[in-house]
């Protein structure tokens, strides 16, 4: 068997997400070298000491390096368009973290750049790699749930504690829906396999006074095939978490107000995913002399060491993207597919702002 082809990669933006990817790539035989760039000089010094990676003094130092084949864009959301388009035009493959951008025109420009250059662009919707949610997708594909008609997601989290974090500023984040909730509407689009035609979102006044973005949503969206999905989100009720999110966070947060649960309801059965209970369940519908029946027939769980593989599988996503680029394959998620999720997020923000339902065809 021939050796796996290895490529050089770069990471643009080396905060927590960039460092998580860096840890993954350092252990991959498909990655021959890593170059990192961040505008924070102190952070770059720390990275060089901690990880021993090559540091790029400027962005141009990355873009003009012909050895680099793949760039991971993990900077703040408002930098996504600039970095992604520049890397694509330099002939590099790009993985860009979600959300795509802070405006629809910026997201469209990224897709157009990928198409114009025939480049590789994948957006970081890693829940499509996460075992908890791929199990549901498998059940749907196998017909075990029948046609999915209704989903409900309930999500309660603790607050981002710092006042100055870029995620709570509207200019740099682009809104809470894209930054925090895009995963959870993207999942349902993927499960149902259809497009949303109308969104209605409403928000109460913020509990967290220094946020420039909403800290709560109740959102309903209707698909073209008639299916309905609901998302209820509250940030702040769950107990504040000061620990290391990479060290058994689910066990530390279980029972303290954190909730992340889906109910998926189809014509032939139903499923439930529950992150903080570490469970995934399935019911099968039938009929007897008294009418419809429901039988609970599957109840799976997982060990704590597999938490992130089950509900935020950035590890396998990063390795799969490296493999795809090395072998000349296309992205697993088409950028136009990711653009539809992005439009859905902005439709929800517009609906909440204008207090009315918003049709997706309003957004150009």
Give an account of the 3D structure:
- The chain contains 12 helices and 15 strands.
- It has 364 residues and is of the alpha/beta class.
- The chain folds into 2 domains: 7-125 and 315-331, Rossmann fold; 128-311 and 343-362, Dihydrodipicolinate Reductase, domain 2, CATH 3.30.360.
- The strands form 2 sheets. Strands 14-13-12-11-7-10-9-8-15 form a 9-stranded mixed beta sheet. The protein has a 6-stranded parallel beta sheet with strand order 3-2-1-4-5-6, with helices on both faces.
- The longest helix is centred in the last third of the chain and has 20 residues, at 335-354.
- The radius of gyration is 21 Å and the shape is globular.
In short:
The chain is of the alpha/beta class. Helices cover 35% and strands 27% of the residues.
Helix content: 25-40%
Strand order of the largest sheet: 14-13-12-11-7-10-9-8-15
Biggest sheet features: 9 strands, mixed
CATH superfamily caption of the largest domain: Dihydrodipicolinate Reductase, domain 2
CATH topology of the largest domain: Dihydrodipicolinate Reductase, domain 2
What is the first-to-last residue Cα distance?
A: 49 Å
What is the subunit organization of this protein? Answer: single chain
Number of domains: 2
Q: Which structural class do you get from the secondary structure elements?
A: alpha/beta
Outline type: globular
